[in-house]
Design a protein that fits this description.
This protein is mainly α. The longest helix has 38 residues. The relative contact order is 0.07.
Amino acid sequence: MLSSVLRSGQAVAVNVEIMRAFVRLRQMLLSNAELADKLHALERKYDGQFKVVFDALRQLTQPPEKARRSIGFQ
């Protein structure tokens, strides 16, 4: 927010880069959504024949779970 209020050249450059980062983030989210939709369509069409492949793809597209540290004394 501060970069949009300030009028220095550096503040303007930072503001432009922030906007570009949000545009790239939106594009990545849309491309992943399109990929997920295509995968679901293929899964519905060929589910019986390629169940193993679709299970592997589903595991690869899910984010990895973070290892949780145990709380308390060891």
